[in-house]
Design a protein that fits this description.
This protein has 20 helices and 38 strands. The protein is α/β, with parallel strands linked by helices. Strand 21 (447-451), helix 14 (458-464) and strand 22 (473-478) form a beta-alpha-beta unit. Helix 2 (49-55) packs across helix 6 (219-242) and helix 4 packs across helix 5 (154-167). The chain is elongated, with a radius of gyration of 33 Å. The model is unreliable at 325-360 (pLDDT under 50).
Length: 718
């Protein structure tokens, strides 16, 4: 479900507005002093500056997903990206060592500014940390390949890398379409027209542009390059000032300066490794508030030479300070580069931001609605999140809203992660809908109802998040006390189980509106009260791996309360081995003499693999297909109605299945795993097994009990 670009990050709408659309780090271009002549003037610049930023990067490359939110900084920990809010003045600009004003920075620059005391911890108001990270040196080999491809043409080698970085700065995406016709009146609206004349007539080309809505951006990579460049310039300025030299001009990645005769500046002798100790060697008694991540390379980052006429800053250019409003704040009386300024009053004892800064941030607050108010908000072009534990009528409530929307002329699409839940809600699976309407098309609905939202994995959320950029409204329903998506990871990094529940994405999709259902609508009161008691404060108390005393006490109560001793049509287990064993025992016990045996050769493999079974008219089998086959859907029950060389299914009139198809697509349904029954309901007897299993938790007990209808029909065993 991911987009093709492995380096691209995907952002939630509010993060997109506050980060991606915010001003980008600017190149440092400024005339500090007027240079009247070039006598004794020198210039130093960064060797292959932007390529070096990637080649010698020591920070893991962040890859953001829509669940990553901007956080107020409350601890002494940097994010992958940091918002620095220190004001900047044109006065003493060189002493700010590459800092160009308030805005988002990659941590490579924030580390440097903290390390040298240019900024303090309270200046870092917000952080943004990615879920996934790629190795810091991931791009080293591709960069070397690009370099070798151009051979001795170093100009094109440099240009190719700079062009790549330039493309990372583009966030808009358009699709161009051209239509050729012999008729001029075939031109669509708002097209670009080209006319080609040939002997006997004219041909017209009509070109149209369609904006593609996407939430992907490579800005974090672009920020890495720009902030690394600013850091290198800052390190040059620091070395120049420590040698008593005077900087005159900054031009992107170079510094024009004049050194003292007896104190030469030797930037060209420094290595990348030296830059890590550049500040502490000048101030050995200083205690920086942040340590630099050192580049372990003996390569030289800078070159230095006598200045020439072409090195002067000329023509029309935009100074970095013209893009910033002149700050009325006073420049600190102690220069950021002096040892006395290190950490002096720079960190609050509790690590929090100033009250003024925090007051300007907008907290995420939910508007708690009644059921009537929630329905009214949706009918008035709003969105809604409906939450509640199992059995409180979420699906029924949302179905009522959908019926009213459809009656009002709205087009509503309904999706859920599983076939069982989507069939019950009257929709399709989320995977099918996303592939058809997001990845390979465009949605036609005005409202999208996502049932069992807690089961939607990050790959689907990455695509569904795009819909928040185009005004589609959402109805979300689900219970975050149930199991999180299985194998939920982003770019190989596991996603926290509560990531969606606590994310800004959920708040944005729901429009900040939430209805909480609490009344029992499905099971009897005794059963509902017991599994509802497992939820404390709306969050299930998940017991760590192993049998804790709390879980033992709860299980003892459950076994005493739910002690049905007869045959149970439905059984829940943790392991597939136990599932296969129970299915075989019950299947052989109740098979009539007329049953047809479908033999599976070899050993039963792990997972939900096929097993030998006896089938007869009336037996219920469980769908086990990756995609729908002849009407068979994964996780849904099907009743065998007739067996005569082929098999007919009661729920699928006119469909016949061969024995091989039955063995491949259907499974015995007497026993299922806990993880596979979310969204299911059992009207017959139910028994919960594997309660002493070391992976069994309160969540398994909650999910299992909440599938049943009556306490008298439930059994909890070891």
């Amino acid at each position: 479900m991911y987009d093709g670009d492995q380096l691209a990050s995907h952002f939630e709408l509010e993060v997109w507005k506050r980060y991606v659309e915010s001003p980008r780090p600017k190149a440092l271009t400024m005339k500090l002093r007027e240079c009247k002549n070039l006598i004794d003037m020198e210039i130093s610049d960064v060797i292959r500056c932007r390529r070096s930023a990637l080649l010698y990067n020591v920070h893991p490359i962040p890859v953001f997903c829509p669940l990553d939110d901007i956080k107020i900084r409350t601890e002494f920990v940097l994010g992958d990206l940091n918002f620095v809010a220190m004001p900047l003045s044109r006065k003493a600009f060189a002493s700010f060592l590459g800092y160009s004003g308030p805005g988002w920075q990659h941590r490579v620059q924030t580390e440097w500014l903290l390390h040298t005391g240019v900024i303090k911890w309270e200046h870092i108001t917000e952080t943004l940390t990615a879920t996934a990270h790629l190795p810091a040196g991931l791009l080293a080999e591709p960069l070397e390949i690009m370099e070798r491809a151009w051979g001795e043409n170093s100009g094109n080698a440099k240009l190719s890398v700079n062009s790549l970085i330039g493309l990372w700065a583009i966030d808009e995406s358009d699709m161009m379409k051209i239509r050729t016709s012999a008729r001029e009146d075939d031109a669509p609206d708002h097209c670009l027209k080209s006319i080609f004349e040939y002997q006997g007539g004219f041909v017209y080309d009509f070109m149209t542009k369609t904006k593609i809505i996407r939430n992907a951006s490579c800005r974090p990579l672009h920020d890495l390059c720009m902030c690394s460049e600013a850091t290198r310039v800052g390190q040059m300025l620091f070395a120049i000032q420590m040698a008593g030299a005077i900087p005159y001009e900054l031009k992107t990645d170079s510094v024009l300066f004049k050194a003292k005769k007896r104190r030469p500046v030797e930037l060209d002798k420094l290595t990348f490794r030296d830059l890590g100790t550049l500040y502490t060697r000048s101030y050995p008694l200083a205690r920086p508030t942040a340590q630099l991540t050192i580049v372990s390379s003996e390569s030289k980052p800078f070159r230095q030479s006598p200045a020439e006429e072409k090195d002067l800053l000329r023509g029309c250019y935009e100074s970095v300070t013209t893009r910033l409003s002149e700050s009325s704040a006073e420049i600190p009386t102690t220069s950021p580069t002096t040892s006395q300024g290190i950490g002096a009053g720079s960190v609050k004892s509790d690590g929090t931001c100033s009250a003024q800064v925090v007051a300007n941030l907008h907290p995420r607050n939910w508007h708690e609605c009644t059921t009537e108010e929630g329905e009214r908000l949706v009918m008035e072009k709003g969105s809604l999140f409906v939450q509640g534990i199992a059995g409180t009528g979420k699906t029924t409530y949302c179905q009522g809203i959908v019926e009213r929307l459809q009656a009002a002329g709205e087009r509503v699409d309904i999706i859920s992660k599983t076939h069982v839940a989507s069939r019950r809600a009257g929709g399709v699976t989320a995977d099918h809908w996303v592939r058809r309407h997001v990845i390979n098309g465009s949605p036609k609905c005005t409202v999208l109802w996502i049932d069992e939202i807690s089961q939607i994995d990050v790959g689907l959320l990455l695509q569904i998040c795009k819909l928040t950029f185009c005004g589609i409204r959402f109805i979300l329903s689900g219970d975050f006390n149930q199991f999180a998506p299985i194998g939920n990871n982003f770019r190989g990094t596991p996603v926290a189980e509560d990531a969606l529940q606590n994310s800004n994405l959920l708040h944005t999709m729901a429009g900040g509106n939430r209805v909480t259902l609490t009344e029992c609508r499905r099971s009897d009161r005794e059963l509902f009260d017991f599994y509802a008691s497992l939820v404390q404060g709306g969050v299930l108390n998940i017991t760590p791996r192993g049998m804790s005393n709390i879980l033992r006490t709860i299980l003892a109560q459950a076994k005493a309360t739910f002690n049905f001793s007869g045959f149970c049509r439905n059984n829940l287990v943790i392991s597939h081995r136990k599932r296969i064993q129970l299915n075989r025992q019950i299947n052989e016990q109740f098979a009539p003499p007329c049953a047809v045996r479908l033999e599976i050769g070899g050993r039963v493999l792990r997972g939900n693999s096929a097993q030998t079974m006896l089938i007869w008219p009336g037996i219920q089998l469980l769908g086990a297909v990756p995609t729908e086959r002849k009407g068979i859907r994964n996780g849904c029950l099907y009743t065998v109605s007739e067996i005569e060389g082929t098999v007919r299914i009661q729920e699928l009139p006119g469909v016949t299945l061969s024995f091989e198809q039955v063995k491949s697509w259907l499974r015995l349904s007497y026993a299922q795993t806990y993880a596979s029954v979310q969204g299911s309901e059992f009207t017959a007897q139910l028994r919960l097994h594997d309660t002493t299993h070391h992976f069994f938790t309160q969540r398994h007990l909650f999910v299992g009990l909440s599938r049943a209808r009556a306490a008298k029909d439930v059994s909890v065993v070891d």
